[in-house]
Amino acid sequence: MVVEMIPLFGPLPGGMELAVILLIAVLLFGANKIPKLARSTGEAMGEFKKGRQEVESELREMQESGSSAETESDAAVEADAEV
Question: What are phi and psi of 3, to 5 degrees?
Fold first, then answer.
């Protein structure tokens, strides 16, 4: 049985398609604004990545503190059971 994977976003553009896209971008934004646009896009992606890492580390800390709180409550229940 052969299962084919269907691409989520379709095929990627090749060389000629990329050249046409670049030409349209130059016509729309002008040659002077394209480096500024690329720079601001890169900065935005960096900020997004940094924010995602902060959220992931906070979630990890919450999970670790939650598991230690559960261990403490389990120990308290066992101590009550012994009394």
Answer: -110, 120
Region of residue 70 (phi > 0: left; psi between -120 and 50: alpha; otherwise: beta): alpha
CB burial of residue 43 (10 Å; 0-12, 13-18, 19+)? exposed
- Single pTM value for the model: 0.48
Three-state SS for 17? helix
Helix axes 15-29, 33-82, angle to 10 degrees: 110
Q: What is the pLDDT of residues 13-59, one digit of tens each?
A: 788 888 898 889 888 888 888 888 889 989 999 999 999 999 999 99
Contacts of 28 (CB under 8 A, 6+ apart): none
For residue 54, what pLDDT is reported? 96
